[in-house]
Design a protein that fits this description.
The complex is a heterodimer. Helices cover about 65% and strands about 10% of the residues of chain A. Chain A is rod-shaped, with a radius of gyration of 31 Å. Chain A contains ten helices and four strands; from the N terminus they run H-H-H-E-H-E-H-E-H-E-H-H-H-H. In chain B, the strands form two sheets. A six-stranded mixed sheet of chain B has the order 6-7-8-3-9-10, sandwiched between helices. In chain B, strands 2-1-4-5 form a four-stranded antiparallel sheet, covered by helices on one side. Chain B is globular. The N and C termini of chain B lie far apart (about 35 Å). The chains are: A alpha+beta, B alpha/beta.
């Protein structure tokens, strides 16, 4: 309860306690700048973390619902094996639909690697069957056995092989983003602690006078805590607003699912950056309070 | 009038504390760097008493004053301030104790970015008595120490004598039970020294307990002609009662 009151006092104001510490331009600017820079970085770390989370979820959802069957067979057997595969799929539980991809679709898939005028009919390109799953999906092992019996040239690709590393990478990026935010908070606390200690050391005469006339440690600490907390709050507000403007101008998510797009915030996620200034003030409050009491306890 | 308020307050204080010692040293000693600065100090300061502390430079007068408001802890023996052992005091206890003691140093320090008036009001602010800060009281106090015209000045703009008087005003604004002054006339001329001493004598007549460290024997003689004051001398680290030679 007393700690809560101490936090409230920072914002309710204690003009007298605040006035006892002389204004110090350099540490004031340093603290405000540090808070602004850290808030700026936090917004981007938050945006990256949330965007990779969304990406991981999207890839996981989209790729988990589909699989592909690739048929490599001599020209004369291609149609028969395709029909056999479709028949197997029609009678397999967990398959919603299956269709043979047209030449145009296959050409579009290969276009990024081979260019637009690909003579598909002259190349030994396997036929692709797109499979959409339902429910828990098919029993992959059983389906592979049936396909090898009915259509020896058919290979089932359920995307697990390359879906898992992508989802893992996105998940790790998300964790890295969260760790970065924690590191930024820790660095902010460390820097504000150093700035507060420096301010306390520079104001040795002020502290000496205050203790001589009977000031309690909490009174002296409050003057420094209030000053540093408000500086951190102002700096973090500036940094957050600037970073949000930056995020606003980042490329939106592309329909094609381009990797470096859609890194901003979406929906209610836009609210999250507004939590950064009060959190920065909270970190500054405890960092300064800790530094102040630690320094004062060392003085006789 | 601020001074009148202080007088009533002080009289109440004496009644409450009759028979008690404000400061008590029992075989107290202080060693620094392996050298005895003070040893076997035994002293009791009764409420309303006036004491001078003399001795040559470096004899330990300032050290003894520092022991009296817990700026230093004794290395041997016992020191009690307001009936409380200094070793058992918490940091908050020390702060509360110092609100009852007005200290005037030879080189008194202020918050240089605040005006003299704000510096005088500071003890009330730090003890949560902002409601007691009345401009008229501050004006009375400034007038009493002859600094009416210097209230808005910053401390670095004051002369040595003005600083001493401002420090005295700051020391008494809380109407303390005890005033400790370390060479309060060290930086001022004879006329100003007499004026400061007159202020301290007046405070003693109001019931305040005074302990002044000084090596100015003429000043002591002047004061002794007005109030009953005991003179203590530090000689070879020990405290003695001085008398006949003054």
């Amino acid at each position: 309860m007393e700690r809560f009151r101490a936090i409230l006092e920072v914002f309710s104001g204690d003009g007298n306690a605040d006035r006892v510490v002389p204004p110090s331009g350099f540490t004031a600017r340093l603290t405000t700048f540090t808070a602004a820079a850290m808030a700026f970085l936090t917004v981007f770390a938050l945006a990256l973390s949330l965007a990779t989370g969304r990406l991981a979820a999207r890839w996981d959802a989209e790729l988990a619902r589909t699989s592909t069957i690739r048929i490599s067979a001599p020209e004369g057997q291609m149609a028969a094996q395709s029909e056999a595969v479709l028949e197997v799929l029609r009678t397999t539980p967990g398959i919603a639909s299956a269709r043979v991809m047209s030449e145009a679709e296959q050409r579009k898939l290969l276009e990024p690697w081979f260019g637009p005028d690909l003579p598909l009919d002259t190349l030994p390109v396997p036929r692709l069957i797109e499979v959409l799953e339902e429910g828990r999906g098919p029993d992959a092992a059983g389906l592979k056995l049936r396909l090898s019996a009915e259509a020896p040239g058919a290979v089932l690709d359920d995307h697990t092989r390359w879906r898992r590393p992508l989802v893992n990478a996105a998940t790790r990026l998300r964790i890295l983003g969260a760790v970065s935010i924690l590191l930024i908070a820790g660095s902010t606390a460390a820097m504000i602690t150093l700035a507060a200690q420096s301010a306390l050391a520079a104001n040795g005469q002020v502290i000496g006078v205050l203790r001589l006339i009977g000031a309690r440690d909490v009174y002296i600490a409050r003057a420094f805590v209030r000053r540093f907390t408000l500086r951190a709050l102002v700096g973090a507000c500036v940094g957050t607003v600037l970073a949000m403007i930056g995020v606003l101008f980042m490329p939106a998510a592309a329909e094609e699912g381009a990797f470096l797009t859609g890194l901003g915030f979406k929906g209610w996620h836009w609210i999250l950056p507004f939590l950064i200034p009060p959190l920065a003030a909270f970190v500054a409050f405890w960092a300064t309070r800790w530094a102040a009491f630690r320094t004062l306890s060392r003085l006789s | 009038m601020f001074v009148c308020d202080a007088r009533k307050d002080a009289k109440r204080g004496i009644k409450q504390k009759a028979g008690q010692s404000l400061i008590e040293l029992k075989n107290a000693g202080f060693t620094y760097g392996g050298r005895d600065i003070l040893s076997e100090m035994t002293l009791r300061l009764q409420p309303g008493s006036f004491h001078f502390l003399t001795g040559p430079s470096g004899s330990g007068k300032t050290t003894l004053l520092n022991l009296c408001y817990q700026a230093l802890l004794p290395t041997t023996g016992m020191v009690r301030i307001f009936e409380q052992d200094v070793r058992a005091m918490t940091r908050d206890d020390i702060a509360k104790m110092r609100r009852r003691i007005g200290v005037v140093h030879q080189n008194c320090q202020f918050l240089d970015h605040l005006s003299v008036r704000d510096n005088l009001a500071l003890p009330l602010s730090v003890s949560g008595r902002e409601d007691d800060i009345h401009p008229s009281n501050l004006d009375d106090l400034l007038g009493w120490v002859g600094l009416t015209e210097r209230g808005e000045a910053l401390p670095p703009e004051l002369s040595g004598g003005e600083r001493q008087r401002a420090a005295l005003a700051r020391a008494i604004i809380m109407s303390p039970d005890l005033i400790l002054a370390d060479e309060p006339t060290g930086n001022v001329d004879w006329e100003m020294a007499q004026r400061l001493m007159a202020l301290l004598v007046e405070l003693n007549k109001m019931g305040k307990t005074i302990l002044i460290a000084t090596h100015d024997l003429n000043l002591i003689r002047t004061v002794k002609s007005e109030v009953s004051a005991r003179v203590l001398r530090i000689n070879n680290t020990k405290l003695q009662l001085a008398g006949a030679d003054l």
